[in-house]
Design brief:
heterodimer, A: six-stranded mixed β-sheet, three-stranded antiparallel β-sheet, globular, B: mainly beta, six-stranded mixed β-sheet, 0% helix
């Protein structure tokens, strides 16, 4: 049982917009930045979004992050087949004094 | 170009101690939290713990009683020891570069991962 709650799966067709949610609490998401990671099949996770809404250089602007209260979302617009991956949210938890991850969302491009 | 390279035993018996080491090439070793994260087969990511260059540590409460993370700044290395392993500790173990604060980009660099299997 993960501290952060994500839907286990999401799907969309090429060109669509898909949104992945990440739900937490006052001790984690509500009071800290949220980070998103993309893990392509068989590879190491890569930082996709930092400081809740910022993209590292090299990440397409099709990826965007948002946060409101104790929840955060990752939106992927103009869905492409290469976006098929697992996506994880993460943040610091003040109560646990440690990092917590969501359980991950497997994105399928139909 | 920062690179993290990790190594350690990949097959353990129950009750043994898991030991992994990660070396950091390039970039600064100070100012970051050097982190261990694991991923059981087919499952999600789990933060194990972190250590600063000065040796300050934070551990996942669920693993704290069995985990020790240490650092050797002279070699830009940090290590993970997890004792009394069981089959539930079977996972890919990653080292990663962590950070905190406004300018941070935690876990922006990762080691290649080490598959650790616990089996009798």
């Amino acid at each position: 049982q993960s501290v952060l709650t994500q839907p286990p799966s999401a799907s969309g067709t090429p060109g669509q917009t898909v949104t992945i949610s990440c739900s937490g609490s006052s001790s984690n998401i509500e009071s800290n930045y949220v980070y998103w990671y993309q893990q392509l099949p068989g590879t190491v996770p890569q930082l996709l979004i930092y400081r809740s809404t910022q993209r590292p250089s090299g990440v397409p602007d099709r990826f965007s992050g948002s946060k409101s209260g104790a929840s955060a979302s990752l939106a992927i617009s103009g869905l492409r087949s290469e976006d098929e991956a697992d996506y994880y949210c993460a943040t610091w938890d003040d109560s646990l004094s440690g990092w917590v991850f969501g359980g991950g969302t497997q994105l399928t491009v139909l | 170009q920062v690179q993290l390279q990790q190594w350690g035993a990949g097959l353990l018996k129950p009750s043994e101690t898991l030991s992994l080491t990660c070396v950091v090439y390039g970039g600064s070793f100070s100012g970051y939290y050097w982190t261990w994260i694991r991923q059981p087969p087919g499952k999600g990511l789990e933060w194990i713990g972190e250590i600063s260059h000065s040796g300050s540590t934070n551990y996942n409460p669920s693993l704290k009683s069995r985990v020790t993370i240490s650092v050797d700044t002279s070699k830009n290395q940090f290590s993970l020891n997890l004792n009394s392993v069981t089959a539930t500790d079977t996972a890919v173990y990653y080292c990663a570069r962590g950070s905190r604060g406004f300018w941070s980009r935690p876990f922006d660099m990762w080691g290649q991962g080490t598959m650790v299997t616990v089996s009798s």
